[in-house]
Specification:
By secondary structure, the chain is an alpha/beta fold. It folds into 2 domains: 9-62 and 367-423, Roll (Urease, subunit C, domain 1); 64-358, TIM Barrel (Alpha-Beta Barrel), CATH 3.20.20. Helices cover 30% and strands 22% of the residues. The protein contains 13 helices and 17 strands. The chain has helices at 83-99, 113-120, 171-183, 211-223, 235-243, 257-266, 274-287, 291-294, 297-314, 333-338, 344-350, 353-358, 419-423, and strands at residues 9-18, 23-33, 36-42, 51-62, 64-69, 102-107, 128-130, 135-137, 165-167, 189-192, 228-234, 248-254, 269-271, 317-318, 376-379, 399-402, 405-409. The protein has a 7-stranded mixed β-sheet with strand order 3-2-1-4-15-16-17, with no helix packed on it. It starts with 8 loop residues before the first strand and ends in a 9-residue tail after the last helix.
């Protein structure tokens, strides 16, 4: 499909954040052409454009990147719905992510390439989307929704018709499942290599998947020009996955110093999701999370904060992720939680340049630079001084541009002056 671009646009009267240098640069203009930043210059030194927007001295930063989301609302509760309803609910979810300033997200399981295609074709507004398809799980693993009392047989099909994961056993089945997800448009492959807070069976420390199963998926992803992301908590599990070539570690709360050093040595990334555990602690019992998982939430949160400190000290690159299955409206609270152990510029880098590296778009996303995609936010204030300006539902972000298209402009007009915003209001979590 041929990409469509907005008219050439000139943004004037702005300061912008050089994310790599960690400083604000004042008194600039930015010219946008064909969806990219064509020119950055002082004052009126840049060329003209058919449309000019005066940002009135606001701070411009790159569009935010969340590397661990779940766009599909069928994961958020027991109420069944048809695929067409699910698609519309997913459209609401991604639209609200965009209006919080997230211009790119990586789905960590459950969303197919159809939503990505709809966003790319501008059928619905939403962030640039990188999908994993269904997460690959062993029988009884974190991606198998059946409890120990469920006698439902998957009949050897290796996939669930709808849901977060698909079940496979043995290297051959995992290889076939990985190839099928790639066929269906997955940008990367997700595996689940331990239990989770929401798992009906299995502990956080349990090592799921054999080495041969993991290696089969890693080898196939590598041949396909992509990579593997893995759900895991325990240090021993992280170590095994990194040694087998897994590129991004999702959660990783029980990381230790030795394993952090190995991650740094191998160039593996950490994607913590601390806000998810805060949300589960608040709503989890009413949302149906297993009692065994809820009992460990305080320890998981404390360990998760410590894992960021250990990773930072070892030189591991830490990306921004949220993993909010049932409470997507809390997405931006992750900024505040991380501020206990990270500086504002470290947090912003995690949600920009490091996220761009993970999705393999360095220099194109997560940066304000000539030649980069025109994914830009204008902030009412300086986020280097007050990271809370990035929280909430985008109330401090009056201007959002993605691919050169103005997705939100409250600098001159009512921010909700379009039908999509009026109809697709906040998503209420099941506990409400």
């Amino acid at each position: 499909m041929e990409q469509t671009y907005a008219d050439e646009t000139l943004l004037t009267n702005l300061d912008y954040l050089d994310v790599n240098e960690g400083i604000l640069k004042s008194g600039y203009s930015i010219r946008i052409k064909a969806g990219r930043i064509a020119e950055i210059g002082k004052g009126s030194t840049v060329g003209t454009a058919s449309k000019t927007i005066d940002l009135k001295g606001r701070v411009v930063i790159p569009g935010l990147i969340d590397c661990h989301v779940h766009c599909s609302p069928h994961l958020s509760g027991p109420s069944p719905c048809l695929p067409s309803t699910m698609s519309l609910l997913g459209a609401r979810r991604v639209h609200r992510m965009l209006r919080r300033g997230f211009t790119t997200v990586r789905d960590a399981g459950g969303t197919d390439a159809g939503l990505k295609d709809a966003i790319t074709r501008r059928i619905v507004p939403g962030p640039r989307l990188f999908v994993s398809g269904k997460a690959l799980s062993q029988t009884g693993g974190h991606g198998d929704p059946r409890s120990e009392y469920d006698l439902f047989d998957l009949c050897g099909c290796g996939a669930m018709a709808a849901g977060f994961g698909r079940v496979a056993d043995g290297p051959d089945e995992f290889l076939r499942a990985a190839r099928d997800e790639l066929r269906l448009g997955a940008d990367q492959i997700k595996i689940v290599a331990s239990g989770g807070v929401g798992s009906p069976t299995g502990s956080l420390e349990q090592m799921q998947l054999s080495d041969a199963e993991i290696q089969a998926v890693v080898d196939e992803a590598t041949r396909a020009g992509t990579y593997v992301m893995a759900h895991v908590y325990a240090a021993s599990g992280i170590k095994r996955l990194v040694e087998l070539g897994v590129r991004t570690i999702e959660h990783g709360n029980l990381l230790d110093e030795e394993t952090a050093k190995l991650m740094a040595l191998r160039g593996a990334y950490l994607v913590p999701n601390l806000v998810a555990y805060r949300s589960i602690a608040k709503h989890g019992k009413r949302q149906g999370y297993p009692a065994a998982g809820l009992a460990r939430l305080d320890a998981i949160l404390t360990a998760g904060t410590r894992s960021i400190e250990l990773a930072n000290a070892a030189g591991v690159k830490i990306a921004f992720g949220t993993d909010l299955v049932k409470d997507p409206e809390s997405q931006s609270e992750e900024f505040l939680i991380r501020s206990a152990v990270m500086t504002p510029i470290e947090i912003i880098r995690s949600a920009t340049v490091i996220g761009a590296e993970i999705i393999r778009r360095p220099g194109q996303l997560g940066i304000v630079a000539e030649g980069a995609f025109a994914d830009l936010l204008a902030i009412d204030g300086d986020p280097l001084s007050d990271i809370s300006l990035l929280t909430g539902q985008g109330q401090h972000i009056p201007f959002i541009m993605k691919d050169g298209h103005v997705e939100k402009d409250a600098t001159e007009i009512d921010p909700d002056e379009n039908w999509f915003s009026r109809w697709f209001g906040p998503e209420v979590p099941p506990s409400a």
